[in-house]
Design a protein that fits this description.
alpha/beta, Rossmann fold
């Protein structure tokens, strides 16, 4: 499918799947969405502890990058597992402007290493951040009681409804520890009901720019 690099409303770039009219990040602001959904509504719940994160849709690496940047502020030791079946191309990576837009030049080498790092290996990006990438379909996951936080950043239900079902959220539920949290930009009623069906307690939260709401799901203790 045809892919293009586009500039979103906050000046940061993302990848658009032209045939689907779908983007890797919100066209209303890639960086703003990432911070709002995954940092403000997810990572900020944790302080002064070790956190195991699972990202569904590693994609451009933006969510991993901002998590690395913010880890020090929250005094966190992070193990970050990113799942991606179809990695972005090197020429696409070179067109993304996250380092300059975030004014995070000290993380430029880390961001490149995130993409260059081999699959299925632990890579230490710092003393407090371990990255582990898996090149696979996340429907193949069978982890149990392993993660504190899930960044659920799959393509939207409009184009891939099969990724937003109770079957998928059951996999996420099993992968989380008790008390673990899943955050996503999505807010559809069908998505919320699928989460509740498998046992999650679900909250509607204010959404990022361009979206009225988003969802946060918690696995009961």
């Amino acid at each position: 499918m045809k892919r293009e690099i586009i500039t979103t409303s906050d000046g940061s770039k993302t990848i658009q799947i032209v045939d689907w009219n779908e983007q890797y990040h919100s066209k209303h602001g890639a960086i703003q969405e990432a911070y709002h959904v995954f940092i403000k509504s997810g990572l900020s719940l944790f302080n002064n502890q070790s956190v195991s994160i699972l990202e569904i849709g590693f994609g451009t690496g933006l969510n991993a990058l901002i998590t690395l940047i913010e880890a020090e502020r929250f005094h966190l030791n992070i193990t970050y597992t990113g799942i991606e079946a179809y990695p972005i191309a090197p020429e696409e990576l070179q067109q993304l402007n996250y380092i300059s837009e975030l004014k995070a030049e000290e993380f430029e080498n880390d961001f490149q290493l995130m993409h260059d790092a081999p699959w299925e290996e632990d890579i230490a990006l710092s003393d407090t951040f371990i990255l582990h990438k898996k090149q696979k379909d996340f429907r193949e996951l069978n982890d149990d009681n392993l993660f504190d936080l899930v960044y659920f950043d799959a393509f939207g239900a409009r184009v891939q409804p099969e990724l937003w079902t109770a079957t998928i959220f059951s996999i996420m539920f099993n992968a989380l520890k008790k008390g673990g949290v899943l955050v996503t930009y999505a807010a559809k009623g069908s998505v919320r009901r699928a989460m509740q069906e498998v046992g999650f307690s679900v909250e509607r939260l204010p959404g990022p720019p361009g979206k009225r709401e988003m969802l946060r799901a918690t696995k009961p203790i």
